[in-house]
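Problem: given the chain below (231 residues), write out its structure.
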Amino acid sequence: MHELHERGTKLFEEGKYPEAEPLLRTLIKINPRYADVLNKLGVITHLKGNLKEASEYFERALALNPRYTEASLNLAIAYNEMGEFKKAQEVFSKAAQIAHPTPTSLDPFVAGKLANEHYKVGNIYFDFGMFDEAIEEYKKAIKLYPKLADVHTKLGMSFRSKGNYEEAIMHFIKAKEINPTYGQAWAQLGLTFYMKGLPDLAFEEWENALKHNPDLREAKTYLQLLKKEEQ
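Solution.
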């Protein structure tokens, strides 16, 4: 049974869900008290679009282990997609309370997952040009999990789209501080400097971007265009 568990888990972690599912189902038939297996089956079922069955798997996992943060979050997301918003909020609150008795703090795993959800919603708003709404979502993500270079970068791009260059620059710099190898932050900061009429600073940022990430297409393109302008 241990080998079956290891094999099913490995396939799941590799994203090979059709291969993992029959192994995990066999495990649950043998021993229905595997909370992690129930959670994995819930994820697979959720991805297949069967939210009700998925939520039942997560509920069973939590009945076995009420402190199972990942299952709590997965259940809350399933409830949310089913339109059971009150239930989703209750599960989130309970998970946070178990992880940290103080009401102002969240388990880092929960915070990270929630931040990612806000980031994804922000990206949808951004793609539709709804920059005020995008900014609100990105801010929520950062409030939950401040050290996200990609979120700070998209927040900077949103502010720049509204003509707020100073605020944009602040977030690009913050993204660089969080992750100096995140070339997109350097590239976007350079573009903002260029839009502000500061080509020398833009040139410097794009060159630095390529030092950190030699394959960054945007920085290469911007540098080529800037050099053509100077000729």
